[in-house]
Design brief:
- A seven-stranded mixed sheet has the order 3-4-2-1-5-6-7, sandwiched between helices.
- About 30% of the residues lie in helices and about 25% in strands.
- It is α/β, with parallel strands linked by helices.
- The structure holds NADP nicotinamide-adenine-dinucleotide phosphate.
């Protein structure tokens, strides 16, 4: 049998289950698959290509004879097990924040900086979901007309915190509709019928860590450490799909028509932009799909070299599982494994 021995760490989670789906749908060249999670779900059976596979507890021995290990079980697990997996001979593609800003670890969105993959020393990092969809949408424009400054406001779904947060959104909504008291667990306040400008911890500079990830990760992926970026990240009561209002200042003026033409041909991008018939991207229609959708492209009325646009993508697919699998596919296609 041809192909690679693959392991998924965090296989029972929202992203882990999506890994399985994406691998199946894209017919990834797998010789075998090992599903790993915590001791809580050891023994659980999940279907892969119509066959049941038993989930095992992740241990230091889990990576023997594994070629590619896809990690999505949080930064603590990645910090501990990724180096073990890499030493055992696997190439790790890690979906957590553990190694993203490590100078020895490539941080990759294949549509933007696939070449960086070849520098890997056993670990490759997958960026934050909100960063991925932004760079897929802005990079094709940047190649034609270098970007000077970006201001982005995100509207991020509950699934960005995992499966338990999606369930809590539904529970909170039921309680609120019944007029009963809502006690938040995974959110800092009630999220049902509300929006919260707090994702991850606040830092000394008054930004949140999520906002700072968008700044630093974008600079690293685009090889532009000086790029001026400011982000405000907001949690909204949406189940799946992150939205972003992006304001870009270019080196030269760019018309909305030119931007639409460039984006219409850009890999991984789908333009949905006809305000006359209310055609623009929104999370409900983006959920479950692979593309980064762009609409509401218009001149920024406040700046002669500015454009504004609205960008939406499924945070579990392109924001996590799909991008991770695309990194692995690129590595295989170009012989970097
Ligand atoms: N959701 C998103 O939009 C998104 C986007 C980008 C990146 N990410 C990142 O992806 C990771 C997982 O997110 P998620 O949304 O899939 O979370 P999730 O639904 O809560 O799943 C967490 C997974 O981690 C596993 N896990 C927990 N403790 C473990 C341990 N001690 N050893 C091994 N596995 C353990 C869980 O296994 P059990 O079932 O056994 O507990 C489960 O499979 C996080 O790092 C997150 O930041 C998420």
């Amino acid at each position: 049998m041809e192909g690679f021995h693959v392991a998924i760490v965090g296989a029972t989670g929202l992203v882990g289950r999506e890994f399985i789906k994406v691998l199946e749908q894209r017919n990834f060249p797998m010789r075998s698959i090992r599903l790993l999670a915590s001791d809580r779900s050891a023994g659980t059976k999940l279907y892969v290509k119509h066959e049941q596979v038993e989930v095992e507890e992740t241990t230091a021995h889990s990576f023997e004879e594994v070629d590619i290990a896809l990690f999505s079980a949080g930064a603590e697990i990645s910090n501990h097990f990724s180096p073990i997996a890499a030493r055992a001979g696997a190439v790790v593609v890690d979906n957590s924040s553990a190694f993203r800003m490590d100078t020895n670890v490539p941080l990759v969105v294949p549509e933007v900086n696939a070449e960086d993959i070849k520098e890997h020393k056993g670990i490759i990092a997958n960026p934050n979901c909100s960063t991925i969809q932004m760079v897929v949408a802005i990079y094709p424009l940047h190649k034609v007309n270098p970007i000077k400054r970006i201001i982005v406001d995100s509207y991020q779904s509950a699934s960005g915190i995992g499966s338990a947060a999606m369930e809590e959104l539904v529970e909170q909504s039921k309680l609120a509709l019944e007029g009963r008291e809502v006690v938040p667990h995974l959110f800092p306040h009630q999220i049902a019928f509300n929006v919260l400008p707090e994702i991850d911890l606040f830092m000394d500079n008054a930004y949140t860590k999520e906002e700072w990830k968008m700044v630093e990760e974008t600079q690293k992926i685009m090889h532009a450490p000086e790029r001026a970026i400011s982000a405000t990240c907001v949690r909204v009561p949406v189940s799946i799909g992150h939205s972003e209002a992006i304001h870009i200042e270019f080196s030269r003026p760019m018309s909305p028509q030119e931007a639409r033409q460039i984006l219409a041909e850009a890999p991984g991008v789908r333009v949905q932009d006809d305000p006359g018939i209310s055609l623009y991207p929104h999370p409900w229609s983006a959920a479950g799909t692979d593309d980064v959708f762009v609409g509401r492209i218009r001149k920024d009325a406040s700046h002669e070299r500015g454009l504004a646009m609205w960008v939406v993508s499924d945070n579990i697919r392109k924001g996590a599982a799909l991008n991770t699998v695309q990194i692995a596919e690129t590595m295989i296609e170009r012989g970097w494994i």
